[in-house]
Write a structure and sequence with these properties.
The chain is of the alpha+beta class. It has 9 helices and 4 strands, in the order βαβαββααααααα.
Length: 217
């Protein structure tokens, strides 16, 4: 199989998920930075649009073609490279892990992505404090639910057992976003503990935004 190419941006939490997944699987890949920062907007350039009409990151170039959407990429990686698995073996636990991950990837993250934030500014006249309040509101709403979900479970090293799953892969990048807006993690002791333990894992540490070649200090 040819080397995978990840169209990436250092601070994208969706791309961060895929980097973690690739590292957990031990799969070599080439990172190709796409600067999606406002004012740079490389995702809108014709060369990138031709590869990914959605004009977002991440996108994974494989020998079969281009694959987009972080959870779809992670699902493909989990089938293509079965070990270690991204889901618990028990079907109920696997469903719970997916539910946890989707609370982040489908509920929190889309409302805090660059496109809706830009729309708030341009069409509703939101100022920066207003945008920040919007951002924190949706993280807190999701984190409230995730903390409550964890409170019903026995504590384990990772969210759903003693090995990382899709839940941890989604949680850690979202916690990075939350720290950036100075969310009070005292409200979420279980999430904070999981995030800290996961970030100590080499696959997670290697994937952190500050360790990427396009990182800006």
């Amino acid at each position: 199989m040819s080397t995978l190419k990840l169209y990436d941006y250092w601070r994208s939490s969706a791309a961060y998920r895929v980097r973690i997944g690739l590292n957990l699987k031990g799969v070599a890949y080439e990172s190709i930075p796409v600067n999606i920062a406002p004012g740079k907007d490389e995702q809108f350039a014709e060369a990138y649009r031709a590869r990914n009409p959605q004009k977002r990151v991440p996108a994974l170039e494989t020998e079969h073609g281009m694959l987009t959407q972080s959870l779809a990429i992670l699902g493909w990686l989990d089938v293509q490279y079965p070990e270690p698995p991204f889901l618990p073996a028990d079907p109920w636990e696997a469903a719970q892990a997916r539910s946890f991950a989707l609370t982040i990837a489908a509920d929190i993250h889309p409302l805090n992505n660059l496109a809706p934030l830009a729309y708030l500014r341009s069409h509703f006249g939101a100022d920066e404090p207003g945008v920040a309040a919007w951002y924190v509101h949706w993280i807190k709403l999701g984190f409230d639910a995730l903390e409550a979900q964890l409170a019903q479970r026995r504590e384990t090293v990772f969210a759903f057992g003693d090995a990382p799953t899709i839940a941890d892969i989604c949680l850690v990048p979202q916690c990075a976003n939350a720290r950036r807006v100075q969310l009070d993690f005292g409200l979420y002791p279980r999430l904070a503990a999981l995030d800290e333990r996961a970030r100590a894992h080499p696959a997670f540490s290697k994937a952190t935004p500050e360790n990427q070649k396009d990182a800006v200090g």
